[in-house]
Amino acid sequence: MSEVNQAREYFLGGGVSSRVNWTRGFLIRMALIGATTIGMIVVMSMTQSVWATLPGVIFIALLFFLPQLRTAAGDLRVDIAHGWLQRLALKVIRWSEFDPSAESVPAPLGKIACLAPSAAPGKPELAVIEHESDQYFSVVLRLDGLSTGIVSAGEDDFHADKFGALLRNLAEGGVVSQVDFAVRVAPCEPDDHDAWVSEHAAVKSGVLANVLGDLSRMIPRIGCEYLIWMVLRIPTEKVKERLADEGLRPTTEALAEAVFDLTGEITQLVENAGLRPRFGVPPASLGALIRHLYLPEYHPDELQGITNAWSGFVPYKLDPTGRALVTTGASGKWFHSVGEIPREGWPAHAVTADWLDPLVVGGEDEYRLVLAQFPLIRAKKAIRRAQAATAAALANEKGQAGSVSDGSDAYKAEAGTWMLEDISVKGASGVTPVLRVLVSETSMRNLREARTRVEDAITAAMGAKEFSWADYDHARHFVTMLPMARGAKQ
């Protein structure tokens, strides 16, 4: 076996994803074109004038050609979802702003409720979020890092294998439909670090004292705080099936307790995979985490002012440029941007266990949240997808015989073959990963620089073929960054 094959990750994404033309945007455009055409026929029959249909003709032309336009920069595809039509729609339905005094949670979250079961009265509670609109529950686990420092490539591969086995076990178990891992990268605060050094440094003079002083001034510029959360998405129907097997009625209390018990069982699998669950996040801690994402000046462990899971939401609005979501805290304004790597943007090469290092390590200049979402797929279904992707890639490659190509079809065919071997022979996982990034800064100028650093890390260092920001739609995409297992197609 080659070294490349040993180091690769076993995810259904990038190389084995075949191009789908029937996207939601395409279907919406077709529906609008059909409705406009019918309207034009009605208008023409009533007015007996062809000129009366001119607005409809112009509208249909825009629907056809607007998605093919490019901005002056030439690097961002202009789609209706990022154009004037959506901006108008967001303004009408007010998804681009939020006022906690008018509603408890942002509209894109739909109808949700926070349940708080515990092992016994007086014991710590677990925040179980019921997503009534989407029919699933989500829970959050706080994880500790491995604390191993720099490790060898062999150790990386060992941890990657155990992680792949965890995803496969969860997928085959059928209870969990999606697993998210959120890594918060926060710059070190110089004042906090100086206070720690002053408290712990026993040496007050001499060369060693000078060295400690130099380190104290340098570490905040190159150091970061890393916090990790794991989010589980459990379909409501699976919880009801468990209650039915036990002869229990699916009351709200019974559903919450069943999710609590399932979380305990899943936590044991997570521990067996080498990860280190610290605790299940209770409602107040979830509220503190939500507030921290909107207002990074508050630490996610700071509970002052938090009474429940929803008290972490703060007022926000879209910046007039459309490039940021704006919140205001005690220290001033915060500007946030959300971006993601689409499925077709994954790199055309083997992805190793340390692929995210350039994005996670090196975020000392701004607040980042790196969210990796893994919608789980059972091995049988994953094999069918890999077979279909391989067949499609081979057909495209054969159809382009004798012409110049970028080699992507040949790579997809090879990647599909790898996937079939990995799933059927090596017991690897079948998932369709989604990668999102949230960056937060204190000014638009700093945010523009932070966005450039993230783009460089993803496209240059990580080799992704495409990365896009959710400009004009950051309010709705920010919701996908919250620890609630949203935003990834099931």
Keywords summarizing the entry:
490 residues; alpha+beta; 14-stranded antiparallel beta sheet; 15 helices; 14 strands; disordered N terminus
SSE order and pairing:
Layout: H1 3-7, H2 24-47, H3 54-65, H4 84-93, E1 97-98, E2 112-115, E3 128-131, E4 136-144, H5 153-173, E5 178-187, H6 190-200, H7 207-222, E6 224-235, H8 236-245, H9 252-272, E7 276-280, H10 283-294, E8 316-318, E9 325-329, E10 332-341, H11 357-360, E11 367-377, H12 379-399, H13 408-424, E12 430-431, E13 434-441, H14 444-461, E14 468-469, H15 474-481
Antiparallel strand pairs: 1-8, 2-3, 3-4, 4-6, 4-7, 5-6, 5-11, 8-9, 9-10, 10-13, 10-14, 11-12, 11-13
Helix pairs in contact: 2-3, 6-7, 8-9, 12-13
In short:
The protein is α+β, with helices and mostly antiparallel strands and 490 residues long. The protein has 15 helices and 14 strands. Helix 2 runs antiparallel to helix 3.
Characterization of this structure:
- 43% of the residues lie in helices and 18% in strands.
- A hairpin with a 4-residue loop joins strand 3 (128-131) and strand 4 (136-144).
- Strands 1, 2, 3, 4, 5, 6, 7, 8, 9, 10, 11, 12, 13 and 14 form a 14-stranded antiparallel β-sheet that branches.
- The chain is globular, with a radius of gyration of 25 Å.
- The longest helix has 24 residues, at 24-47.
- The chain starts with a helix and ends in a 9-residue tail after the last helix.
- It has helices spanning 3-7, 24-47, 54-65, 84-93, 153-173, 190-200, 207-222, 236-245, 252-272, 283-294, 357-360, 379-399, 408-424, 444-461, 474-481, and strands spanning 97-98, 112-115, 128-131, 136-144, 178-187, 224-235, 276-280, 316-318, 325-329, 332-341, 367-377, 430-431, 434-441, 468-469.
- It has one domain.
- The chain has 15 helices and 14 strands.
